[in-house]
Amino acid sequence: MDEPELSAYIDAVLTGDDDAARVLVRHLYPVVLRMVRAHLPRRASEEDLCQMTFVKVFSNLDRYSRQVPLHHWVSRIAINTCLSQLKAESSRPELRWADLSEAQAITIENLEASTGELDASQSVSSRDLVELMMSELNPADRTVITLMDLEGRSVQDVKELTGWNASVIKVRAFRARRKLKSIYTRLTGETGR
Amino acid sequence: MNRSNSNLDRLLRAASRATPAPLPTDPPLGFEARVLAAWHETRERFQPNLSQVIFKRALICALAVMAAAVGVGLYEMAAPEPTETLLATATIDWAFD
Fold first, then answer.
1. A111–B7 CB contact, under 8 Å
2. Is the pTM higher than 0.80?
3. Hey, are the CB atoms on B23 and A33 less than 8 Å from each other?
4. Does B23 sit within 8 Å of A34, measured CB to CB?
5. Who has the most CB within 10 Å: A35, A43, A150, B39?
6. Chain B nearest C-alpha distance from A87 (Å)
7. Nearest to A130 by CA among A150, A152, A113, A156
8. Which residues of A touch B7 (CB under 8 A)?
9. Selection from A129, A114, A147, A155 nearest residue A39 by Cα
10. What would the pLDDT profile of A29-85 be if each residue is shown by its tens digit?
11. Residue A23 — φ and ψ, nearest 5°?
């Protein structure tokens, strides 16, 4: 669906057309779900977060300026919805070696034992491990690591998606990596590695 | 870059290579209906009813009338006394002197 077509549906939704709203939900669902899955707070259900995002999208549709693509605007709302949810989950328990699964523990052991890249079979356990480590970070730090390190997005992309300015993003990324590093060091230190 | 930082970088690189689970192209059954119901509920909750609108307008009118009354009162207090009053006052003062 191209932007003029989307624009026509937006106009229809603004006049109260529920069928047009259904079309927009079906069209935007994969975009919202992808963002929600990448930034999902621990205790939230992805369907509830998707629903919250869509309600915010429709409630604020009259403020959408149409100067940026609709997907960008919706992605930004999805990220901010997840960030608010993460902020609500204030407790961030400290991760211990005993909390790791066997696969995650093996991943750390492999990292410590060699200097080469981990092989592809360990990418899922690495991802799970990073997710666990990120649960100790604050929502903004977690978002910046997810977008830049896990999704490989540029500072400009992060700027568009979050509305933060470039220097804030760089500083936040630096601090977030430093915190992750200290969590990693703590984990490896627990086993005397 | 020290050793554990380099390990962290390798961990992050490996994590970024994890293929995300395939995304469903369609929303779950009944999802659109739930979104629309929640949206309508939010809209109704934040839409003021008729009595609230009337009360709000009446309050604005009352405040405008009060402001106008205060303005006129201040203007009259600040304005000089009319010439007739001054003449009468001067005549009375002259008669009693």
1. yes
2. no
3. yes
4. yes
5. A35
6. 22
7. A150
8. 111-112, 184
9. A147
10. 999 998 898 887 776 788 899 999 999 999 999 999 888 889 999 999 999 998 888
11. -60, -45
